[in-house]
Amino acid sequence: MAVHTNGKRKTAKARATVKEGDGTLRINSRPLHIWSDQSDMEEERIKEPLNIAGSDVVEDLEIRVNTEGGGKQGQTEAIRMAIARGLVEYTDSEQLERDFRDYDRNMMVEDPRRTETRKPSQSSKGARHKQQKSYR
């Protein structure tokens, strides 16, 4: 049985497949330590759902994640969410979902914040920029 889940953060998207396997984690067809070669923090953030779930759950699973869009940090958060959702759906455990939510709500729930769109007939100074007025 394979479970497909997704995670999003800002403009980054990640799709995870969780199935029975040999305990490997691959991101864009590469092992985790190669994908996050520049920063150990990214690797630790991605491993958080695996550590919370415990080695007895994770050691018999194969997790494959495809990610695109956004930056490295956004992709890391999207991967983390996709893995957490996949583990909950695969194990069908309400306790595991509660553990994820108690640790960090963003493992299970998307962050609704998005950038505000630029308003028409303004210079490139931002979304809330208004034309200056002089009353004197």
Ordered list of secondary-structure elements with their pairings:
Elements: E1 2-9, E2 12-20, E3 25-27, E4 30-31, H1 32-35, H2 40-53, H3 55-58, E5 61-68, H4 72-91, H5 94-103
Parallel strand pairs: 3-5
Antiparallel strand pairs: 1-2, 2-5, 3-4
Helix pairs in contact: 2-4, 4-5
In short:
This protein has 136 residues and is an alpha+beta fold.
Describe the structure.
This protein is an alpha+beta fold and 136 residues long. 38% of the residues lie in helices and 22% in strands. A 5-stranded mixed beta sheet has the order 1-2-5-3-4. Helix 2 (40-53) runs parallel beside helix 4 and helix 4 packs antiparallel against helix 5.
Count of helical stretches: 5
In the sheet with the most strands, the strands line up as 1-2-5-3-4
Number of strands: 5
Task: Write the CATH fold name.
Answer: Ribosomal Protein S5, domain 2
Structural class: alpha+beta
Distance between the termini: 73 Å
Helix content: 25-40%
What's the rounded overall pLDDT mean? 88
Low-confidence stretches: none
Strand content: 15-25%
Along the chain, the helix and strand elements come as EEEEHHHEHH
CATH architecture: 2-Layer Sandwich
